[in-house]
């Protein structure tokens, strides 16, 4: 890598590394610019995308049981959320805590600054007395810095099945950081998309309206806008696949012809063969036995699991050992 490339922003550097690799890949965290945030909110409303509805059902119906453990401490606590997004589901918990008069501070963490601005404003309007300290950072970066550490117990929310956005080895690394970001007795509520009918899973990432396709294609559009790339968006297709053995649902953008793409910020062209894929995203599904192994390996014990009525999704409460 040249000295010039060393001075590039993280986005450009990650694109350079990803498109220079074999096979090509792009980090899914860059889906979330302002347009990507809006598209993902549309995805969550799709009839095929069951994940949000099922977790919403869990939190709506079982929030008192979920929060009972942390409230038993009978003292102020920190509520930290990794990947807060628009906070739609979390507001169920926040409203309950505010109504109960519980003393706590909410730390929403997200890689997208635009999402955090919107979340803070909506919370200011809905719950003006709620103390909110937003943190724009990655999961691992925030867990290492622990800006919320103040001697109070902590409940970390890692909802939405976001742990599934990492291959297993990388998930282990994220959970190792989660252990570093907690003290003994702290709790973590993790959302897991459970293994189920493979067609149900695949449909969630291949909706009839094409919103998930647009969400993936928007990554190329962002590169065109921010990095001066010349991707022809019509010459790439979105291709999801699901492997019921390892539970991995993977998304690719596939070049429909042999072509070269020039990226001005990198001053470099990248060659694509006909039907060559770019790996963009993984969403891993777990079985209950796999979740138990994951907790034990990561230094946590399972306190309780909360599932929806169809056992599509589970929010599992872990305690740091």
UniProtKB/TrEMBL annotation:
Q: Which Pfam family is one of those matched by this entry?
A: Methyltransf_33
Keyword Methyltransferase listed? The answer is: yes
Q: Which GO terms describe its biological process?
A: methylation
List the InterPro entries hit by this protein, alphabetically. Answer: EgtD, EgtD_Methyltrsf_superfamily, MeTrfase_dom, MeTrfase_EgtD-like, SAM-dependent_MTases_sf
User: Which controlled-vocabulary keywords does the entry list?
Assistant: Methyltransferase, Transferase
Q: Which domain of life is it from?
A: Bacteria
Q: Where is the Histidine-specific methyltransferase SAM-dependent domain?
A: 11-319
- Give GO terms: molecular function aspect only: L-histidine N(alpha)-methyltransferase activity
Q: Which SUPFAM superfamilies match?
A: S-adenosyl-L-methionine-dependent methyltransferases (SSF53335)
Which NCBIfam families does the UniProt entry name for this protein? Answer: egtD_ergothio
Name of protein: L-histidine N(Alpha)-methyltransferase
| Species this chain originates from | Algoriphagus namhaensis
Q: Which gene encodes it?
A: egtD
């Amino acid at each position: 890598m040249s000295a010039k490339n060393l001075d590039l922003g993280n986005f450009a550097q990650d694109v350079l590394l990803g498109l220079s690799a074999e096979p090509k890949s792009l980090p899914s965290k860059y889906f979330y610019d302002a347009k990507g945030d809006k598209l993902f909110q549309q995805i969550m409303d799709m009839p095929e995308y069951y994940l949000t509805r099922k977790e919403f059902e869990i939190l709506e119906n079982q929030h008192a049981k979920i929060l009972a453990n942390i409230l038993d401490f009978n003292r102020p606590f920190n509520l930290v959320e990794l990947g807060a997004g628009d906070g739609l589901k979390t507001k169920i918990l926040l409203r309950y805590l505010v109504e109960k008069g519980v003393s706590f501070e909410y730390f929403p963490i997200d890689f997208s600054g635009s999402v955090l601005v919107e979340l803070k404003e909506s919370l200011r309007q809905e719950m003006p007395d709620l103390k909110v300290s937003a943190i724009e950072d990655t999961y691992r970066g925030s867990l290492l810095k622990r800006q919320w550490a103040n001697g109070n117990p902590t409940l970390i929310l890692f909802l939405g099945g976001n742990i599934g956005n990492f291959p297993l080895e990388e998930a282990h690394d994220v959970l190792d950081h989660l252990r570093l970001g907690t003290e003994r007795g702290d709790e973590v509520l993790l959302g897991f998309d459970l293994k189920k009918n493979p067609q149900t899973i695949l449909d969630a990432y291949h909706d009839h309206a094409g919103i998930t396709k647009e969400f993936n294609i928007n990554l190329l559009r962002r590169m065109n806008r921010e990095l001066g790339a010349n991707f022809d968006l019509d010459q790439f297709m979105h291709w999801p696949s699901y492997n019921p053995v390892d539970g991995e649902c993977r998304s690719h953008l596939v070049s429909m012809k042999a072509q070269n793409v020039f990226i001005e910020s990198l001053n470099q062209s990248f060659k694509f063969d006909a039907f060559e894929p770019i790996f963009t995203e993984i969403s891993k599904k777990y079985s209950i036995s796999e979740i138990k192994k994951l907790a034990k390996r990561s230094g946590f014990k399972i306190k309780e699991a909360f599932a929806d009525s169809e056992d599509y999704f589970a929010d599992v409460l872990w305690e740091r050992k």
